[in-house]
Structures are given as structure tokens and as C-alpha cells.
Write a structure and sequence with these properties.
By secondary structure, this protein is α/β, with parallel strands linked by helices. The protein is about 45% helix and about 15% strand. It has two domains: about 1-210 and about 405-415, Rossmann fold (3-Layer(aba) Sandwich), CATH 3.40.50; about 220-400, Rossmann fold (3-Layer(aba) Sandwich), CATH 3.40.50. This is 3-deoxy-D-manno-octulosonic acid transferase.
């Protein structure tokens, strides 16, 4: 019943939804390419003589996971062509920067029945792999109608998502049962998924455990280390509105005791960099936006770029992961962990609850509840190298235990391609 209601409502609302997409274009949330592809007015070209594997990743973190899988498949199976869909301009840009062989990028169509039907008929994939848990009922229904196997990798249901989908349990079950396989990221996610469907769900671990470390430039890392060799460096990544204020305030306070402190801030959304610059000026801190301009009196390096985090995780080892003091739910901690960093987060980490719990259990991460606690822990990391090294050692042990997740996923893909 709910599926029918959803289809009817989405059809009735289609003029409003399409109008809203044009509003997003005006506001810069879409461009002409993303809009035309989401409405299936235009399609990307692809070689018609190859089978299509379709990966979908909604945003940046999922895109990076998909890229790691795609690189392996593309090398092993050059006879295949890979379609990658994303939902945001940022994730599309990150994917295109990789310049992968045998791949085509297209934006995911909006979930209107007549639009997704046109999309699937055009691409006609052999198999579809969703990364994490963006569930679009019309899209999934149309894929299922054509008997195309659907795999859900790194399946996750946050507190809010689980609460929402649980309100419509029968509807959610009817969607999730259409997947051939659901591999969950954690035991908690497994327990949540099996309330909707049981036979196709398996817990194998978080994909980030076995995905490759982020790429980095040896030249840039060398420059960072050389320029900042006499500094106590702290890197704040994926920060959101309000968190930069916390960071610059702590920097200023710590500078009273640690005169050579240097802080690097990398906002989650590079478009916010001007806000961070204004904040730094208000606090009368000396900032640069390019390491080439470094002088000893500088306080901050403010970064607004894509695909560069690996450089900073490789060069420095004290990392604050944002979205955890702003009530966002946190961001993935495994990327810095895999590059041997000591990690600090704030109180809001519900998006990665199982990961955080695992790291806390093994004393592999610092969780803080207040800005004062964050300041105290940073000071301790600067002053106590053994404390920092033990954190890094503990996180490395956790990661090494779960290296085979990718192998399981790849074997499953190859099985469905037979």
C-alpha cells in the first residue's frame, strides 16, 4: 500500500519537484549538466559493446569507497564499463579528478517513476551496487522490475534514519527485500537491517577498514613537513559552521603555553572558506591559504580544496574530525586512522556510533564532551608523545583486524557477473 501511495504522491508532486530542481540551479546547488542529467534530458555517452556495472554513491565518503572498488575492478576486468552516479556536485568533482579508465559519471536521476525508468532503459546495467543506504523507492522498484541484481555495500542506518524507516516498516521491508545482498558496516547496523529483512543481510565490517589509504603528493607532504618542522601542528578536518570558532579560540588559548602551535583548518565545504577567513581576522590570527606563503609568525593554514586530506594525514598526526561539535553526527574517522594519526572528536558522533565505540573500547581515540576538554586533550597530545603513540598503535591494531572486507565485496560482484 505504501509503495502505491509513494508512487502516486511523487507523480502528483512531480511539477513541484522539478521546479525545486530549477531553484537549486539558481542557488548554485546544481549546474546545467547535473540538472539535465537528473531529469534525464541528457545522458553521458558510453561504449555500447560492453556490459555496464553501476555504482551509486550519494556523497563524498561513499564516493571514495566506490572509487577504491572501481579501481580494482577496472584493472581486473577491462571488458566491463563502469557507470558511477552521485547526487552532489562535490562528489562528482572528486570522482572526475580520479580520471579512471573504463568509467563514466552521470548524476543520479530524481526519484520520479517515468524519469528513473528512462534512466535504467538507457544504461541497462548488468548489476547495481549501492554504497551505504540511500534508498529511493521508485528507482529500486524499476531496477527490480528488470531483474537486475542489486547489492548494498557498507549498509548503514543512523539513529534518525532507523527511526524514520521504522515508522513505515512494511514499506521499508518491501524495498530492502529487493536487494540480492546487504553487507552491513557494523553489528548495530546489522541488527537494525534485520528488523526489515533477514535472508539477504550479512555483517562483514566497515568498507573503510580495507579501502586503500587516501592518496597524497610526496612533494606536497615534504613541503608541509619542511615548512612546519619547528611547529606543533594540529589539523581540524571536515569542520562545520561553529566548529571553526571553537578551533581558533582554542588555538589562541593554547598559544599562551605552546608558542609554536600551528593549526590547519579544512572545512567540510570549501565554499565556506571566506567565513573561516573572516573569523580568523576577527580573532587577529595570522593566517595563510597556501603553504608556499608560510612564515614563522603564521598561526593558521586555511584550506579550501578537494581531494587533499591524504596530504595532511600523511604529514601530521594530531587530527580533529569535525561534524562532532556541530550536531551533524560526525564524519568518518578511519581515513586519518589508516594514516597513523591520533584522532579527537566531539560529543556528536551518532553517524559512526559503532566505529567510535570500537575505538573507545580499545583506547584508540579521544572523545571529548566540552571545548575545555578538547583543549586539555590537545595540550596533552602536544606534551606527551607516548600518549599519542599509544593511541596510534591501538587504532592500527583495530584496522589490521578487518582487512578482508573488500575481498568479500569484490568476490560477490564477480559472482553476480558470471
Amino acid at each position: 500500500m505504501y509503495r502505491t501511495i509513494y508512487k502516486i504522491i511523487s507523480l502528483i508532486a512531480s511539477p513541484v519537484i522539478i521546479f525545486y530542481m530549477f531553484i537549486r540551479l539558481i542557488r548554485g546547488k546544481e549546474n546545467t549538466t547535473s540538472l539535465s542529467q537528473k531529469l534525464t534530458i541528457k545522458f553521458a555517452n558510453y561504449p555500447k559493446n560492453k556490459q555496464i556495472i553501476w555504482f551509486h554513491a550519494a556523497s563524498v565518503g561513499e564516493t571514495n569507497m566506490a572509487i577504491a572498488l572501481i579501481k580494482i575492478i577496472s584493472d581486473k576486468r577491462p571488458d566491463l564499463h563502469i557507470l558511477m552516479t552521485t547526487a552532489t556536485l562535490t562528489s562528482a568533482k572528486i570522482f572526475k579528478l580520479e580520471k579512471l579508465n573504463n568509467t563514466t559519471h552521470q548524476f543520479l536521476p530524481i526519484d520520479l517513476n517515468f524519469i528513473v525508468k528512462r534512466f535504467i532503459n538507457y544504461w541497462n546495467p548488468k548489476i547495481v551496487i549501492f554504497i551505504e543506504s540511500e534508498l529511493w523507492p521508485n528507482l529500486i522498484d524499476q531496477i527490480n522490475t528488470k531483474d537486475i541484481p542489486m547489492l548494498l555495500f557498507n549498509g548503514r542506518l543512523s539513529d534518525s534514519s532507523f527511526a524514520m524507516w521504522s515508522k513505515y516498516k512494511n514499506f521499508t521491508s518491501s524495498i530492502l527485500r529487493k536487494f540480492s545482498v546487504i553487507y552491513t558496516a557494523s553489528q548495530l547496523d546489522y541488527n537494525r537491517f534485520i528488523t526489515f529483512t533477514k535472508d539477504n543481510v550479512e555483517y562483514i565490517g566497515h568498507f573503510k577498514y580495507s579501502s586503500p589509504s587516501l592518496s597524497y603528493s610526496d612533494t606536497y607532504v615534504k613541503e608541509l613537513k619542511s615548512k612546519l618542522k619547528n611547529k606543533n601542528v594540529f589539523v581540524a578536518v571536515s569542520t562545520h559552521d561553529g566548529e571553526e570558532k571553537i578551533i581558533v579560540k582554542i588555538h589562541k588559548e593554547l598559544k599562551e603555553n605552546i608558542s609554536n602551535i600551528f593549526t590547519i583548518i579544512i572545512p567540510r565545504h570549501p565554499s565556506r572558506i571566506q567565513e573561516v577567513i573572516s573569523l580568523s581576522e576577527n580573532y587577529k590570527l595570522d593566517y595563510i591559504t597556501d603553504i608556499k606563503d608560510f612564515k614563522d609568525e603564521n598561526d593558521l593554514l586555511l584550506i579550501s580544496a578537494f581531494g587533499i586530506l591524504g596530504n595532511f594525514f600523511e604529514a601530521h598526526d594530531i587530527i580533529f574530525v569535525g561534524g562532532s561539535f556541530a550536531n551533524i553526527g560526525g564524519h568518518n574517522i578511519l581515513e586519518p586512522a589508516k594514516q597513523n594519526c591520533a584522532i579527537i572528536v566531539g560529543p556528536y558522533t551518532s553517524n559512526f556510533k559503532d566505529l567510535i565505540d570500537e575505538f573507545v573500547k580499545h583506547k584508540a581515540i579521544i572523545t571529548t564532551q566540552t571545548t575545555q576538554q578538547l583543549k586539555n586533550e590537545l595540550q596533552k597530545l602536544f606534551n606527551d608523545s607516548k600518549y599519542k603513540e599509544q593511541l596510534i598503535k591501538n587504532s592500527t591494531k583495530i584496522i589490521n583486524k578487518q582487512k578482508d572486507v573488500f575481498k568479500v565485496a569484490l568476490n560477490t560482484i564477480y559472482e553476480y557477473l558470471k
